[in-house]
Design a protein that fits this description.
Pfam families: Aminotran_4 (PF01063). The chain is of the alpha+beta class. It folds into 2 domains: 114 residues, Aminotransferase class 4, branched-chain amino acid transferase, N-terminal domain (D-amino Acid Aminotransferase, Chain A, domain 1, 2-Layer Sandwich), CATH 3.30.470; 163 residues, D-amino Acid Aminotransferase, Chain A, domain 2, CATH 3.20.10. The strands form 2 sheets. Strands 7, 8, 9, 10, 11, 12, 13, 14 and 15 form a 9-stranded mixed beta sheet that branches. A 6-stranded antiparallel beta sheet has the order 2-1-6-5-3-4.
């Protein structure tokens, strides 16, 4: 595997960063994950916009001259002969500073490498996955801006461990006020009475790229969409639910806690969104 590391490509066994790098020491940095479809970089501009926004919110400076992102990412694709894959971009503040004080960091560390697409079974893709309501809460935006895809991922890791211990595919985090937020690596939608619902950005969720696209496609299709603040009780009479992220796109949910949702044959809104999203990808590439 070829890895881009600080202005050069190296084999993966030669990709090394300093033990004093702040990304390793403090999780001081950001990341972004893109999808490669048939050698094409999907929704590149949206991902780069969010990456730059994350850097700005953390006061994280990029090297000068700035990387030619599209050219470098395309080289990652070509060197690794990628067709259907993921690429992760990681940017840390680099080496420098004492303790939490970042002063003295002169050069950011930039790493890009391929990752496999999340593996789902045929049953999961067709019939959906199970979720539980987690006790782990989403950290508030006042502690860490929710728009940032931070290297400090411990909140998500603890939540995922809880979901695994509950023997479910994933779990829904609530925010500190008790409202529905998101899952560990995805945004969450539910539908009832032919209306689509999703937690609003005010709930402290990450503004997912796939979430953003699904909202746009649903509105264009004339589907009634509401972004709001919901409590777990709002799910008990839901008809459908699905997850969205860059890796698996739109993934149906078949069970929340122990309550089964609509069967795969009756999942009208979910199927419509899946079709619209797949069509949008085909048009994009």
């Amino acid at each position: 595997m070829w890895v881009y590391l600080n202005q050069q490509f190296v084999e993966d066994d030669q990709a090394r960063i300093s033990v004093f790098d702040r990304g390793f020491l403090f999780g001081d940095g950001v990341f972004e994950t893109l999808r490669v479809y048939d050698t094409r970089l999907l929704f590149l501009n949206r991902h780069l916009q969010r990456l730059h926004q994350s850097c700005e919110l953390l006061g994280l400076s990029l090297p000068t001259p700035h990387p030619e992102w599209e050219t470098l990412l395309q080289e990652v694709v070509e060197r690794n002969d990628l067709h259907h894959s993921m690429i992760r971009i990681t940017i840390s503040r680099g080496v420098g500073g004492v303790g939490p004080d970042p002063s003295g960091c002169s050069n950011s560390t930039i790493v890009m490498f391929p990752r496999p697409v999340p593996q789902l079974s045929k049953d999961q893709k067709k019939h959906g996955v199970s979720l539980t309501i987690l006790n782990t809460r989403r950290q508030p935006s006042l502690a860490l801006p929710s728009q940032v895809k931070s290297l400090n991922y411990l909140n998500n890791i603890l939540a995922k461990q809880e979901a695994i211990n509950a023997h479910t595919f994933d779990g829904i985090l609530l925010n500190t006020e008790g409202f529905l937020a998101e899952c560990t690596t995805s945004n969450f939608f539910f539908a009832k009475e032919q209306r689509l619902h999703t937690p609003s950005l005010q709930c402290g969720i990450l503004p997912g790229i796939t979430r953003e696209i699904v909202l746009e496609l649903a509105k264009e299709e004339g589907i009634d969409v509401q972004e709001g603040m919901y409590q777990p009780e709002d799910l008990w009479d839901a008809d459908e639910a699905f997850l969205t992220n860059t890796g698996f796109g739109v993934l149906p949910v078949n069970t929340i806690e122990t309550r089964p949702l609509t069967s795969s044959r009756e999942r009208s809104i979910t199927k419509t969104i899946q079709h619209l999203y797949e069509k949008h990808i085909a048009e994009s590439i």
